[in-house]
Structures are given as structure tokens and as C-alpha cells.
Amino acid sequence: MKFESTIGLEVHVELLTNTKMYCGCSTEFGAKPNSHVCPVCLGLPGALPKLNRKAVEYAVKAGIALNCTINNHSRMDRKNYFYPDCPKNYQITQDKFPLCRDGYIDLETNGTKTRKIRIERIHIEEDAAKLFHTDSGTLIDYNRAGVPLIEIVSKPDIKTPKEATLYLQKLKSILQCIGVSDCKMEQGSLRCDGNISIKKMEESKLGVKTEIKNVNSFKGLEKALEYEYKRQLKTIQSGEILKQETRRWDDIKSKTFVMRNKEHANDYRYFPEGDLVAINISDEEIEKIRHTIPELPYNRAARFVNQMHISRQDAYVLTMDMDTADFFENTSKLVERPKSAANWIMGDIERLVNETSRSIKELKFTPKQLSELIKLVDSGVISNNIGKIVMEEMFRAGKNPDEIIKKNKLDQNNSRDEIYGIVRRIIDENPKSLEDYKNGKKRATKFIVGLIMKDTKGKANPKIVNELVNEEFNKR
């Protein structure tokens, strides 16, 4: 008997505004705890909210980019719940009349379009405060209370944990591209609640749903959904009854834990927010916002494939981050083979960026300097291995590649006569390798090539070295 999962995601995105949703307090991340607060975001008696216009514009911009219908008329509502992170004891959000509805994302696997993942709605709301749990108790920082959010709610169209990750990655790339959020998951700017149920493949009725709260990494989301699928399957197969509940993901223990029984909409006692007027947006305003949207990642990827003749998969990876896409495009304009630029950016540069927890924007060298390095490697002035050494120095100090090569005497040796002398010497010093080769062990050539490259400190042209080693082995 085969089972399948049904997954929907609720993604919370902090908007890149300077001030909070209903007051003028700063949204700066990392400030001294409880320093960016006022009577409005602390929910003090008599304080009245005022809606942040920029947050509404950003939400509309996100809705357009995600193929949503923008509602000309919407309103704010009160969602009542009692918890220390909610200073007013209610959250100002949207219930029956959200700002955006009925959108979609074309989900791609390995750079190939597959199918639409429908987006049910996008609504605006305020963030809650942040709790810090310690051995002596729980501390609360209200700086985050009132920060503008959009919540993007998908339909239950996602089939696997891997698809959920791909959906979230594409969503992030679009939101960053249009500039409505920095989507820094490590700072909580992008958080995700995953809803998952399982059912027999032949059945149409969905199973009992579990919600996994506040996952803040792609790997965490995938692992949490995989764990929950196995837990639900084990429960069903053992004859137990699944309960609809909210669970939290523990990254360290790699498992979910029950938080509470799942609430329903009527548990929150939604009602219209009386302190804020309705939101009315004209078609003219919507079109004005539409014209501020830049080329979206999937359109840019298609252009890279058509104009620069790189693979769909490479184009998909390069356009996941707008800064990376910009760096690639600016580099590729200066080199004959854009594929070389893609390889360097997705290879050594991405590795160095990840190792140092930097971003492409923080690179100390320019696309022009990278293009110069690529030309030096492609023309055979230096080997690919020497290029990697030069790249390390460019990344560390931001120097020009020719300056690094000259200073460290890293020019590639392309003299066949000089290399031939080294080949003969190394083979003479290692007669066992020649004997192994004669006995059919062709890997002996790799051993000799390695010794030669070590002897020349990587400067010998590897193509010439391989040719001469094979020639010499076959002559003897």
C-alpha cells in the first residue's frame, strides 16, 4: 500500500521598510533590545495605529510578481490570541478580505518547468515580538513587534519535501529580486510554516494535517517535512489515530514535538479592525507599481539560455540570487565563453563565499577582474589550478590577476622542450611506474603527471605534460 504526502506552505516575509507597520519605530535588525518601541507597538491604552503605505505597496508588488489578482478593496482585522509575544493580545492582520489572491509559481525541477503551485492569498500583518528562552526564564524583545509582514499562503499542491524546498527557494529569489525583502533567513526575515498530511495514493480525500511552525532554513524545512511524513506513516500503520496539531521542529534533535492542538479560524475570533480604515487601491496605482518590477529571475534565466548559451540548470542556479545574476551577466559581457564565467562563479567563488559567510555583493574584486582571470586561463597563460590560486588571492585582497601572477611568478610553462626534460627525469627517478604501465596499470601515468605538476609547482601546462608522459611511456 503506497502513501503520498500533500504539502502547503505559509511563508512569513518581513518587508524591507524603514518603519513598522502601524507606527514610526525603526525596523533595524540587531538594535539594543526594546529600544525601538513606542506606545503603539507596545499596545498601550489609547495608542492608535496608522497603516504604513510603503508596506502596502510592497505587498502589492509581491502579489503582481507572484501572478496574483490584486483586490482594489481590502481591510485589516483583529486576530485575537494571548501570548507574551503579542503585546496587544491581538494581532492586526487580514482575514476575509486579503490584499492579494489566486496567484501561482511555476515550479521547476533541474531547470525544467513542471507545473503550477497555486497561491491562495497574500495578506499583510504585523510581526510578533521575539522570545529568548534561558535557564532562568524567558526574555522578550519587543523591537520586532509591529515589523511589517506579508504572509504568502500556498494551496496544498506540493507533493514532496524536495518540491517544498524548491518552491521556497524560488519564492525567495523573486522577493529579493523585486526588492520587497532581504529574505535573510538567519535573521528571521523569511520564515515558513509547513502543513503536511498523508493519504493512500488512490484516495482523493486528504489526510489529517499537521502544521510545523517557524522553520527558518531550506534544509530544516526539507528535514522537518521528511520526518513528519515518516511519523505520520508510522502512526497510521500502527493503527493509531492521527490528531490535527501544531508541532515545532527541533534542528538539533531532528524531530518534531507537539506544541498544541491545531487552532481553527473561529478560535481566533476575527473581527474588523476598528482603528484603521479600509484599504482602497485604484487600478492606476496597481499599474504604477507593476512598472517598478524588474526582470524576474525565471525570465532572466530564459534570456541567459538564449543569449549566452549556457544550460538551463546553470541559468536557474545563477538567477536564484539577483546579485549573483548581476555579477555573472557583467562578467559574461567581457569574455568569449560565458560558460567559463558560470563555472567560476558557481564553483570557486560560491565555495569561498560560503566558507566566509559573505555574499556576492561583498566580493573585493570586480566582474572585469574576473573576466581578466578567465581570459588568462582560457588562453593558456596560466593553468586552471594556478587560476584557483590566483582566485584565492583575488578573493582575499582584491588585487588584479596579472599583478598576483607577476608577483608570485605563476606564469604557465608552455615550453615542450623544457617540460620534456622534466618528464624524462621524473620517469627515470620512478622506474616502478614505468614497470606498472608496461604491466597494464594505466593509472601509473597519473602518478607521474602528479609528480611533475608538484615538481613544477603547478606551472607546467597539464595538457602538454599528459601528452609527453604518454609518449615517453610508449617509447620505452
TrEMBL record:
Keywords: ATP-binding, Ligase, Nucleotide-binding, Protein biosynthesis, Transferase
Major enzyme class: ligase
SUPFAM superfamilies the UniProt entry points to: GatB/YqeY motif, Glutamine synthetase/guanido kinase
Biological process per Gene Ontology, one example term: translation
Organism domain of life: Bacteria
Molecular functions (GO terms): asparaginyl-tRNA synthase (glutamine-hydrolyzing) activity; ATP binding; glutaminyl-tRNA synthase (glutamine-hydrolyzing) activity; transferase activity
Domain Asn/Gln amidotransferase: 326-473
Enzyme Commission no: 6.3.5.-
Xref: Gene3D superfamilies: 1.10.10.410, GatB domain, N-terminal subdomain
Catalysed transformations (reactions): L-aspartyl-tRNA(Asn) + L-glutamine + ATP + H2O = L-asparaginyl-tRNA(Asn) + L-glutamate + ADP + phosphate + 2 H(+); L-glutamyl-tRNA(Gln) + L-glutamine + ATP + H2O = L-glutaminyl-tRNA(Gln) + L-glutamate + ADP + phosphate + H(+)
Family matches, as SMART domains: GatB_Yqey (SM00845)
InterPro entries attached to this UniProt entry: Asn/Gln-tRNA_amidoTrfase_suB/E (IPR017959), Asn/Gln-tRNA_Trfase_suB/E_cat (IPR006075), Asn/Gln_amidotransferase (IPR018027), Asn/Gln_tRNA_amidoTrase-B-like (IPR003789), GatB (IPR004413), GatB_C_1 (IPR042114), GatB_Yqey_C_2 (IPR023168), Gln-tRNA_amidoTrfase_suB_CS (IPR017958)
Function field: Allows the formation of correctly charged Asn-tRNA(Asn) or Gln-tRNA(Gln) through the transamidation of misacylated Asp-tRNA(Asn) or Glu-tRNA(Gln) in organisms which lack either or both of asparaginyl-tRNA or glutaminyl-tRNA synthetases. The reaction takes place in the presence of glutamine and ATP through an activated phospho-Asp-tRNA(Asn) or phospho-Glu-tRNA(Gln).
Protein family membership: Belongs to the GatB/GatE family. GatB subfamily.
Description of how the protein assembles with itself and partners: Heterotrimer of A, B and C subunits.
Name of this protein: Aspartyl/glutamyl-tRNA(Asn/Gln) amidotransferase subunit B
Name of the gene this protein is made from: gatB
